[in-house]
Amino acid sequence: MINLAIIGAGSIAAVLAKTIVMMNSRGDSKVKLYAVGSRSKEKSEHFSKEYGAIKAYGSYDEIYNDPEVDLVYIATPHNFHYEQVKKALEHKKHVLCEKAFTINAKQAQELCDLAKENNVLLCEAIWTRYQPMRQIINDVVASGIIGVPMMVTANLSYSIAHKERLQKPELAGGALLDVGIYALNFANMVLGDPDYVEALCIKNSLGVDMSDSVTFTYEKTGQMAVLCASALAVSDRYGMIHGTNGFIQVENINNPQKLTVFDKEYKVVKEINCPEQLTGYEYELTECAECIEKGLIECPSMPHERTIYMMNLMDSIRAQLAVKYPFE
Known about the structure:
Structural class: alpha/beta
Shape: globular
Order of helices and strands: EHEHEHEHEHEHEHHEEEEEEEHH
Largest sheet: 8 strands, mixed
């Protein structure tokens, strides 16, 4: 069993811990919840009791220095990711880091280089890249059932503008890194890397993007993706793949639950429900464990090259939006 330690004890950390408990109950887990670390000892102790972690630490350094820790899951806000991943890698710990992986591509490249230098696994926890529905969507598109895919539309929006981490530039706030990343990944998984990217946004009073519109264009194929993300409103979260002979509707690009195929006459010709899942986090945990067993330093579902590409993509979008964080 691989001993996993969680840095941060918030809501995402709780979902991952719950997932490990469920996997262990099912009897197929390769990961054990060994420790949790928080800046509040009281908070980590409460978290440990609730989810059965063996150790509860009141600092992150205690996790880095614990020789029993194999894999560190980083569940803090993304403005902290770079320094926390860096310290974990320097202590030769394997790392699974929540999205957005870092603030920018420069940080991502440095961390991937450090993982290679220390021969440890480093993965971005963009869960939709690991889930079975990703391959199911790809297989349906490749089957030709909708002809040639020519346009993708996708959106992900929640009414979360009141949250401090979204509001402030010093916390690397904004919709793009928080929710827009899912729309970008959805289009990228279907159509690949675009030739051109154009973006617009609505900012808050502090200069952080609250609503984003991003368009991908593909010069050689004539394909296009139109993507939206917002922290100001609730959206339907649909991903649509429009082809020459029909279209595919994907329910909830943040955790795809159902795929529906329509023909030219708008009739349903195929429906596929998401395979039964615990929480959806189990797939990235299993892949990380298997990669550690194999001595790999990156996960096939989200290799370093893809993480760095997506960070470069978001850097280029933020440049167009004129959104820059004070510590960059």
